[in-house]
Amino acid sequence: MTKKAVVLASGGLDSTTCIALAKSQGFEVYAMSFDYGQQHNAELDAVKRIVKKMAVKQHEIIKFSMDGIAQGSALTNSEIEVPDYQGDGEIPVTYVPARNTIFLSMALGWAEVLGAQDIFIGVSEVDYSGYPDCRPEYIEAFANMANLATKAGVEGNKLNIHAPLSHLSKAETIQLGLKLGVDYRLTVSCYRADHEGRACGQCDSCAYRKKGFIEAGVEDPTPYY
Amino acid sequence: MTKKAVVLASGGLDSTTCIALAKSQGFEVYAMSFDYGQQHNAELDAVKRIVKKMAVKQHEIIKFSMDGIAQGSALTNSEIEVPDYQGDGEIPVTYVPARNTIFLSMALGWAEVLGAQDIFIGVSEVDYSGYPDCRPEYIEAFANMANLATKAGVEGNKLNIHAPLSHLSKAETIQLGLKLGVDYRLTVSCYRADHEGRACGQCDSCAYRKKGFIEAGVEDPTPYY
Questions:
Q1: Within an 8 Å CB–CB cutoff, is residue B100 touching chain A?
Q2: I need a surface site. Which of B23, B51, B72, B191 has the fewest CB within 10 A?
Q3: What is the spatial distance between Cα A49 and Cα A42, in angstroms, rounded to a whole number?
C-alpha cells in the first residue's frame, strides 16, 4: 500500500519543495492549505496551480476566521504595515502567533483520518525570519505531543513530523528542488505580492528568496512588480 | 494588572466550571469557542448564554471548516450515528481527531496576542470517554510544545495550560462548580441535544453527566427530551 503524507502547502518555495520531496520518497501527497485572512492571498492562487501541476492526490483548503489572533500580525492585520527586511535578529511583526502550531494541529487531524503517519512542513532554521515555531526543538516537541494526542499514537502507529529543510539554507533548498523538477516560477513567497502573484522584492521573505537564488547560482524566476 | 486567562468554552458542564474557577482565581476570562460543524450545535447557543451570564471579558467564536477531519467522527459526520454509552474501554466514534490540539493551538495564538500566560481546558481523566487528548501526559506535552512555539515562551513568559478538573470525578466537578455558583441548567453536554438544548440522556456524555449528579447527591437540572 502506498504511504500517505500530509504536506502543509503555502504556495511558497519551501513547501513546494516539500511536496516534491515527499513524492520523491514514495509518498502519496495530501496537500493542506489555509485561508486565514492572510493579506498575501496570491499565495492561495499559487498553491492551487502548484498542486494541480504536481498532481497531488488531494488538496484541502481549511478556511478559518481568527480575528482575535490575526490582529497580532502584520500578515493578517491590514493596520500593521509589512516592513522591509530588517535582519536585526528580533522576531518581526510578520510573526503570526501560534501559526505553525495551528497548521500542524489541523494536519494532525487530517493525517489521523487518512491513516497517514507522516506530515511534512517546510520550515528551516537557516535563512529564516526568526520565528520560534520554525526551530527543530519546536518540531520535536510537537511530534512528542502529537503522539500522545491521537488514537493512532496511542495505538502505536507513530506519527512523524518531517521538517526536511530544517538544516538547509535557502540556496540548498532551491538546488534540491531544481533536482526534483520543481518549477519555482509557480511559487509565491512575497508578503506583499500583488493580485497577479508578483513580488515586492523588499520584504523579509523576498530578501531570503532573492539571496537564495543568488547563492544557488541560478537565475531567479520570480516576477517582481 | 489583572491576569488574563483564555478559557476553552464548549457550553458543557466541565468548561463552564473552568470559567467559574478561573474567575475565582482572579483571572479576567477570555472565552473561546469553536463552530466546526459539530452536529450538537445547541452547545454554541448554550455557551453564548453562559458567557453572558458569567460576565466574561470577551468571547470569541472561531469558525472553521474541517471537512477532511470531520468525516472521521460521529460528532461532525452525520453519516456516523452517535451511539448510546458503551463503556467498553475503547476510544469511541465520537472522538474527533486532534480536536483538543486544534482548540488549544487557537487558544495559544489568542493568549499570545492578549499577553495572557494562562489557558484553561476542562478535560478530565476520570469519568471521561477515553479520548487520548484528555490525559495529563498529553496536556503536559502540549504545554512543553507551546513554550517552544511562541514568542512569549521564547522570551521567558511561561505559558501555563491549566487542566484543573484533570483528577476530579464528574461528581467532584459538579460539587466544585456549585460552590462557585455555576448554574448547570445553562450547560449542554449531550451529543444529541435538540434545538432547545434538551438532552437525550443516553449518549456517552449524558451517561457521565447523569452519574455525576447522582454521585454528587444533587438534583440533575438537565432538561431531557
A1: yes
A2: B23
A3: 11
List residues bridging with A6 in a β-sheet.
A30, A119
User: Packing angle between helix B42-53 and helix B13-24, nearest 10 degrees?
Assistant: 20
CA–CA dist B62, B33 (Å, integer): 6
CB contacts, 8 Å: B37 with chain A: none
**ipTM (interface pTM):** 0.86
Q: Do A133 and B142 touch (CB under 8 A)?
A: no
DSSP B185: G
* Residues whose CB is less than 8 angstroms from the CB of residue A11 and which lie 6 or more positions away in sequence, other chains included: A33, A42, A43, A44, A45, A46, A47, A50, A187, A188
Q: Which three cell numbers stand for residue A212?
A: 537564495
Cβ–Cβ below 8 Å for A148 and B154: no
Residue A199 bridge partners (DSSP): A224
Asked whether the beta carbons of residue B113 and residue A69 sit closer than 8 angstroms, the reply is yes
Q: Give Cα B27 distance to the centre of its chain.
A: 18
A4-216 sits in which CATH class? alpha beta
pLDDT digits (tens, 9 = 90+) for B112-162: 888 899 999 999 887 666 788 889 999 999 999 999 998 777 788 899 999
Contacts (Cβ under 8 Å, ≥6 apart) of B118: B3, B4, B5, B6, B22, B27, B111, B159, B160, B162
State if pTM tops 0.95: no
Tell me whether residue B159 is exposed, middle or buried, using C-beta atoms within 10 angstroms of its C-beta: 0 to 12, 13 to 18, 19 or more.
Answer: buried
Specify the residue for cell string 520535536. A140
